[in-house]
């Protein structure tokens, strides 16, 4: 009986191995994390490992999950302390302590989640995504060994998280997590919320992406993640891998895939919230308009100054009167020629008359000295 029971168990184990997916969880963060697993639908089976463990930097764990695993999730917990028995974690905490409870240990938001549904009803398609619908705590990625696409949120969104979404500070004073608008309960009623797509917003037409606050902050930084309840329309939220065409893949879940605490790239700055429009202040009563100032009289145009009379041309200096030429001294009148003495008539010769003594001739005019006129000064 015992031998037949052992043979049956061996056959079941062989069958299970043939219908499994190989999973590897690797911690590339520079700090210790505590990975956790939860199965939402027990009918699809459970992974072949415990639901929680401690993973120091560089730790890797490999295990199998059934190819019918349904509504499964894996996430990282941070800053845990299990020394007091039950213990707790700062982010991603679950019921059950180190090993999360099989039925209630689904983990608390905010936390980044790797989600999976295989097998039954999927027509040979494995569905998977990195969900940040509940917020983020640790960057992560899902990588497949075949050609099927990767799902991820590799950027650390905590440093730039909008203030109204910030989780508690860690032991170093840094923001430990970033809530979604739904988890932060920004609209005040999680049971009827446009951010959560609940109540009157439960259907896709009533929950458009434009009504989800801060959606762009998460989706622009992590375009290959699932960022709100109906994010399939983005085309980069949920991924399906056709195992018939691509083969059965192995799955690698990497925490902090960019290394360096997940800060592979700076998180985008949060979009500023539009400031509420200020209430209009009552318009002040109009002050009486002051009487218009009289228009200034135009200044009289200055009369043109009369052109100065031209100064009289200076009279030409009188030309100096030419000195009168000195009157020529009158030429001395010629002395009259002595009248010829008449020849004596022949007479008897008289007795000789004695000759008169010679007389000195006289001038008829005396020479005058002409006086030159004196020129005026």
What are the segments in which pLDDT stays under 50 over at least 5 consecutive residues?
1-18, 263-267, 344-377
Q: Quote the beta fraction.
A: 15-25%
Tally of contiguous helical segments: 3
Mean pLDDT: 78
The helix/strand series, from N terminus to C terminus, equals HEEEEEEEEEHEHE
How far apart are the termini?
A: 176 Å
Summarize the structure.
With about 375 residues, the chain is mainly β. Helix content is about 5%, strand content about 20%.
What does this entry look like structurally?
Helices cover 7% and strands 18% of the residues. It is mainly β and 377 residues long. Strands 2, 4, 5, 6, 7 and 10 form a six-stranded antiparallel beta sheet that branches. Strands 3-1-11-8-9 form a five-stranded mixed beta sheet.
Keywords:
signal, Osmotin, thaumatin-like protein, Thaumatin, 3 helices, six-stranded antiparallel β-sheet, Osmotin/thaumatin-like_sf, disordered C terminus, 11 strands, mainly beta, 18% strand
């Amino acid at each position: 009986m015992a031998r037949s029971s052992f043979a049956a168990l061996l056959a079941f184990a062989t069958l299970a191995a043939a219908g499994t997916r190989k999973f590897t969880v690797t911690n590339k963060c520079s700090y210790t994390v505590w990975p956790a697993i939860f199965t939402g639908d027990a009918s699809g089976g459970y992974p072949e490992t415990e639901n929680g463990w401690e993973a120091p930097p560089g730790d890797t764990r490999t295990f199998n999950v059934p190819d019918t695993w349904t509504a499964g999730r894996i996430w990282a917990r941070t800053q845990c302390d299990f020394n007091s028995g039950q213990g707790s974690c700062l982010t991603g905490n679950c019921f059950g302590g180190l090993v999360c409870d099989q039925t209630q240990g689904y983990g608390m938001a905010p936390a980044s989640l790797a989600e999976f549904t295989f097998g039954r009803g999927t027509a040979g398609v494995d569905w998977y995504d990195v969900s940040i619908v509940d917020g983020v705590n640790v960057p992560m990625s899902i990588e497949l060994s075949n050609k099927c696409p990767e799902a991820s949120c590799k950027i650390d969104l905590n440093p730039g998280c909008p203030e109204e979404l910030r989780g508690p500070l860690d032991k170093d004073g840094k923001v430990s997590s970033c809530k979604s608008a739904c988890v932060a309960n920004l609209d005040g009623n999680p049971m009827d919320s446009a951010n959560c797509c609940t109540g009157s917003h439960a259907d896709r037409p009533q929950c458009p992406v434009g009504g989800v606050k801060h959606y762009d902050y998460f989706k622009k930084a992590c375009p290959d993640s699932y960022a709100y309840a109906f994010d399939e329309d983005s085309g980069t939220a949920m991924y399906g891998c056709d195992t018939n065409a691509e083969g059965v893949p192995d799955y690698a879940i990497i925490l902090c895939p960019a290394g360096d605490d997940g800060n592979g790239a700076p998180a985008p700055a949060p979009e500023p919230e539009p400031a509420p429009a200020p209430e209009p202040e009552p318009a002040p009563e109009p002050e009486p308009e002051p009487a218009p100032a009289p228009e200034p009289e135009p200044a009289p145009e200055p009369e043109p100054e009369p052109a100065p009379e031209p100064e009289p041309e200076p009279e030409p200096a009188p030309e100096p009167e030419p000195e009168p030429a000195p009157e020529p001294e009158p030429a001395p009148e010629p002395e009259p020629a002595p009248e010829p003495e008449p020849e004596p008539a022949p007479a008897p010769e008289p007795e000789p008359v004695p000759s008169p003594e010679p007389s000195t001739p006289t001038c008829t005019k005396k020479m005058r000295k002409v006086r030159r006129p004196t020129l005026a000064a």
